[in-house]
Design goal:
- The chain is mainly β.
- It has one domain: Methylamine Dehydrogenase, Chain H (7 Propeller).
- 0% of the residues lie in helices and 55% in strands.
- The protein contains no helices and 30 strands.
- The strands form 8 sheets. It has a 4-stranded antiparallel beta sheet with strand order 3-2-1-28, with no helix packed on it.
- The model has no long low-confidence stretch (mean pLDDT 97).
């Protein structure tokens, strides 16, 4: 990891490119042309490579984080998002447009099982503390689905309504938080009972989430309101609302925990704000419709996927 330069990789869905930002200078130092419709840049489980999840081309385009250059291309069906089981044995491609999750052997990319998710909009997920199951959102159906990572089968569902998007397990591993763009807030779900035990109102278009470096706070992007809500895990209440403007989407915390990076989904910029005050630090021009940016490398033993979720 020490040999990897710090970079922020920004997939620009409408431009078909990935902007590479040097966070030391806050400048774009390279633009990688991948075509199609790239949605997320995902660190591999072993932290050795990066994947561009390109559902437009049906590819995972690999980036070597040492050089920042494109290398190998994997052709897989409709990879909107990509995750890895905590034990490192399986890769999970979220084929949103095909309403399925496809399990592969992480090392060989041999197909293990394709799991039909009959509710439209299968989207984002997170894993239980023991890695035995995951919760995945189905954006266009208002449903959250529980899936076993061992049997690779659906275990249960809960209808939360609205448009559920990003999913994060709490630091204590007891509940899951689900951002709901349609309802303007965050559902708190008990995964054992598959029951919503609380709803926290944040702002219009609640979309992406990130955990603070000290694990005390949850940052929530409200894409339509142009705000960031800060939820305290201890109280499950909003403790601050930052008016950042734009259309904040997916989030990443800098390795030192001092900066929050966000893509502006309906624009052409990435914004950086202070995690202490919420005040803007930088705005960086990228391509059209930036989405799941990855700040890499980060502290952690391994990656669970998405745009950089680590344990």
């Amino acid at each position: 990891m020490a040999s990897f330069p710090e970079r922020v990789y920004v997939p620009n869905s409408r431009s078909g490119t990935v902007s590479v930002i040097d966070p030391a200078t806050d400048r774009v130092i390279a633009t990688l042309v991948v075509g199609g419709k790239p949605h997320h840049v995902t660190p591999s489980w072993d932290l050795r490579t990066l994947y561009v999840d390109n559902s437009g081309n049906g590819t995972l385009d690999q980036i070597d984080p040492r050089t920042g250059k494109l290398t190998r291309i994997l052709h897989l069906p409709s990879p909107y998002n990509l995750y890895f089981t905590p034990d490192g044995t399986k890769a999970i491609v979220v084929a949103e447009y095909q309403r399925r999750m496809v399990f592969y052997d992480r090392r060989t990319w041999k197909l293990l099982r394709s799991v039909s998710i009959p509710w439209p909009g299968v989207d984002h997920m997170d894993f239980s503390a023991d890695g035995r199951y995951l919760l995945v959102s189905c954006e266009y159906s208002g449903v959250v689905v529980k899936v076993s990572t061992t049997t690779m089968a659906v275990m249960g569902t809960i209808r939360v309504g609205g448009l559920p998007i990003d999913v994060k397990i709490s630091p204590d591993g007891k509940v899951f938080y689900v951002a709901n763009q349609g309802l303007g807030g965050v559902s708190v779900i008990d995964p054992d009972r598959m029951k919503q035990i609380a709803f926290i109102r944040t702002g219009s278009g609640a979309h992406g989430m990130a955990v603070s470096r000290d694990t005390r706070s949850l940052y929530v992007s409200n894409r339509l309101a142009g705000t960031i809500s800060v939820i305290g895990f201890a109280t499950r209440r909003v403790v601050a609302t930052w008016h950042v403007g734009g259309s904040p989407d997916m989030l990443q915390v800098s390795p030192n925990g001092q900066e929050l990076w966000m893509s502006n989904r309906f624009g052409t910029t990435v914004s950086v704000v202070s995690t202490t005050t919420g005040r803007g630090i930088h705005t960086i021009a990228v391509g059209f419709q930036p989405h799941g940016l990855a700040y890499f490398p980060q502290p952690g033993r391994f990656s669970l996927g998405h745009n950089g979720v680590y344990r």
